[in-house]
Specification:
Blueprint lengths: L8 E6 L1 H9 L3 E4 L3 H13 L1 E4 L2 E4 L1 E7 H4 L4 H7 L6 E5 L8 H14 L6
Parallel strand pairs: 1-2, 1-5, 5-6
Antiparallel strand pairs: 3-4
Length: about 120
């Protein structure tokens, strides 16, 4: 399903066997089998823009990635990738199950946005 330029897109980064189902949902899927491939994909997706009414804006609002890859992204790179509001980079459990990393990242994001820990 192709969306128009008025709508933000969603992407999924992970190994081929873990992201294949997301393609059927209409998400842009990027295969990454290592932390370096994931890092490169994140920076590439983060840099993609579209022009809307003579203004350039981010193409992706959300980038999901498997927890096992997200855990390997350095803190420095993560800070660079998340210095702007969009895209939100959300770690999700892989086929092996959750490590708790994704929930801890979401908890930190919500705490920064709201000002307190609402997940207690």
């Amino acid at each position: 399903m192709e969306l128009d330029n008025k709508t933000y897109k969603i992407a999924m980064v992970g190994s081929k066997d873990q992201i294949l189902g997301f393609k059927a949902l209409g998400l842009k899927t990027i295969t990454a089998n290592s932390a370096e491939e994931a890092r490169e994909a994140l920076f590439r997706l983060n840099g993609e823009t579209v022009n809307l009414n003579n203004e350039s804006r981010k193409k992706y609002a959300i980038i999901f990635m498997t927890e096992e890859l997200a855990m390997q992204i350095s803190k420095e790179d993560y800070k660079k990738l998340t210095k702007e509001a969009l895209p939100a980079i959300i770690p999700v459990p892989g086929i092996k199950g959750t490590t708790g990393f994704g929930l801890s990242r979401i908890k930190k994001m919500v705490e920064q946005a709201v000002g307190s820990d609402i997940f207690k």
